[in-house]
Amino acid sequence: xxxxxxxxxLGLLILTSSWTGWGWTPxxxxxxxxxxxxxxxxxxxxxxxPKDLRNPIDARLGRVGRKVDLNNSSVLVxxxxxxxxxxxxxxxxxxAPYDVVEDVLEIPGLSAREREILEANxxxxxxxxxxxxxxxxxDRINPGVYK
Length: 147
Known about the structure:
Layout: H1 2-20, H2 56-64, E1 68-69, H3 87-94, H4 112-120, E2 125-126, H5 132-135
Parallel strand pairs: 1-2
């Protein structure tokens, strides 16, 4: 009988401690990561990945720099330059690949204003060979990044 009473009391104690917060919970401790980790890079505006951690795509993007790669960039990259996003960027992507930057001026159905915008931005473009990892699927038109 005493054993049953002790089991009942213990069960009641466990049940009430979970309801009332009497149970022990470990304290949350936030710790700053050392500055040598890659997470530190996210605190600056431009992420720099150490050379030993780069993959071939990172190396390619490093060669492109701030320019827009007409054969591999997503539609969001075109926001850097006024007048290109979203309509003109979509036309550029749908008509890729290009052999040289000037090929972008040959997109069928360009209006006179769109052609002017493209001509004004030719120095901001670069053409790299298409990379399947960057262009497969619909990610160039809709990369799934929403704010």
